[in-house]
Structures are given as structure tokens and as C-alpha cells.
User: Fold this.
Amino acid sequence: MDSFLLRDQVSTKSGQLQYNLGNLYARGDGVPEDDAEAIRLYRLAAEQGYARAQSNLGAMYSLGDGVPQDDREAVRWWRLAAEQGEAAAQSNLGLMCSNGEGVPEDDVLAYMWYNLAAAQGHASVGLVVVPGV
Assistant:
């Protein structure tokens, strides 16, 4: 994907374009690796309701990549994505509920989120998953 073309179009308010460019910055693919820029772009897309960007923001907060590590903020973004059916976010939210990280421990909710992710063929239960990165 051409990062220069994406950068020119990022102001179009397209969540998918912002998410894709954020992935390039997160990986350093065709642009210098820059977690702060990746987060800025993910946030633009996430605030428009783009589930994959919400899921990636959750992962970055969970891992402390480019932002201070914050389980509550990770859960907030993962919940928004999970409620839209994003399997990676559902799995990650299940992990947080199971471990009581960022939310009170709740095995019933953990089971629900894991099952929703598994129903979509998501097999990485118990691991923080960053989709697209």
C-alpha cells in the first residue's frame, strides 16, 4: 500500500484509510516506525467507530506501546470494538475479564467474549492480539 497516497487522503475522514496508515506507522512499513503517529491515526478512525482501529488502540494501551500502559483504557476501546463484532477485541476483552485487568474479574463475561470470538474462528484466546499489525 502506498503510504504517500494514504497520507494525502487521510484528511478525508475515512476510518479505513486512517486505520491503514496507522498500521504502516505501527510497523514502519514504507514510513518511519512511529507509535505516536499510529495512535493518532488509530484514534481518528476509532472515534468514527472503526472497530479495527478501536481494537488496535486497545492493544496499544494494554501493551503500553506509544502510550502509558492503561488496562482501563484498553478495555474501553476493546469493548467498543467487541460490541461491533471484532473478534480480536472480543478475545482480548475475554482475557481482561478473566484476569480482572481493567475490569472486575468476571468469568461469565470472559466466557461470553471468548465464545463470541471463537464463533468467528478466532483461535488466539488468552493472548493480546493486534489485528492487522
